[in-house]
Amino acid sequence: MLFVAALFFLVACPIFAQTPGATGMAPGEIKFLGGMLGLGLVGGLCGLGQGKAVAGAAEAMARNPAASAGIRFALILGLVFIETLTIYALAIVLKG
């Protein structure tokens, strides 16, 4: 959290140093920076979600080995949905 706050302050400092008629960064650069921050956030949170899903599936298979086929199917389906979210975020950043 401290890193994100420091990053915002570093990005804001050149904006305050400009003359009133000029701009520090072009609107496209600001949009790209926001997209990259969002993609990093989405990628990190999807990684945490995948880790939690795999841990839960491994624990469930250890408790009930007879149901491992159904658990494995649900795990793979869940991982596909989580990874699709990251791919959608990448597509949005590349489009913008």
Question: How would you explain this protein's 3D organization?
Answer:
This protein is mainly alpha-helical and 96 residues long. The chain has one domain: F1FO ATP Synthase. It is 83% helix and 0% strand. The chain has 3 helices and no strands. The chain has helices spanning 2-16, 27-63, 68-95.
Write the layout of secondary structure elements.
Layout: H1 2-16, H2 27-63, H3 68-95
The separation of the N and C termini measures 25 Å
Q: Please tell me the CATH architecture by its name.
A: Up-down Bundle
Briefly note the CATH topology name.
Answer: F1FO ATP Synthase
Relative helix content: over 70%
The stretches of 5 or more residues where confidence is low (pLDDT under 50) are: none
Shape: elongated
Task: Estimate what percentage of residues fall within beta strands.
Answer: under 5%
Number of domains: 1
Main β-sheet, in a few words?
A: none
Number of helices: 3
What is the CATH superfamily label?
Answer: F1F0 ATP synthase subunit C
Structural class: mainly alpha
| Radius of gyration, CA atoms, in whole angstroms | 21 Å
Number of strands: 0
